[in-house]
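FYI - complex with zinc ion, inputs then prediction.
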Amino acid sequence: MKTYQCPYCGQAYRHPGMAKRCMKKPLCRALNAPNGRIRREWEIQAGTVTIALFIASAAEDQSEGESKEKAKAVIAACDQICDRLRETLPVGKRVADAQAQRILDTAARVWGIGKKAMTVHLCEVIINLICDVEDHYREQWREGQDQEGKRLWTLLGKAVDSLYDALNPTNGECDESWRTPEAYEALRLTIWGPEKEARAPSVYLANDRIWVVARGRAEARDCLLRELGLVRPKLGGVALGTVLEDGRTVGDLVSLAPCIPAIVARTTA
Ligand SMILES: [Zn+2]
């Protein structure tokens, strides 16, 4: 009779689904049912890398010359993050495959794939998703934890920025720009799950001089467009514990906001 083995402990089962879900040994349990923290952190990082790899692979297929090289650089940065996830946040193949499938299903649903304009517009969405990961870890990184993770995510962020610039040298609006918020929301929901409570407000620095309090980047961009007419501000997240020149912390700026989102301060360059 044919049997199926657990890939981690070798236990034989008559049904392949049982072998995949084996919980016999501590290793199988850790990988097939990772604890809440590991699962959450893995979902956020692996989910974002999956979609970045997906679009970089499409860009690599579609382009030549500089864009192709930039796409390869994104793929290389993604590979480095994946290698590190295997070491620091190990999850079983079954958990990993299920998540990858959900993300690729959403990607396929949101976009028709293969058009050049789409790729540019996807890059923009991915830049925002990478920023979400950076926002999530910013406080930990500022405290000196996981500097290798910080280095790798910064590397990936820069690589996708360069790919975007190579695909869109005039920095113009592409045909599908109007779908960016819709695509972002769908992927954000798939990777991060429904927001359990309203997101805590974060502080963003736009174009190195305008301080905005908002719940997420999409809201900050919206506010800058409405209040100041800024179409593509350069938006950086700032850790709440960062101390400003006058001794206040960035977290103090949140209390200055009369409503959220709001522009709370400007500094002269
Ligand atoms: Zn097992």
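Residues 34-192 form one domain. The longest strand covers residues 202-206.
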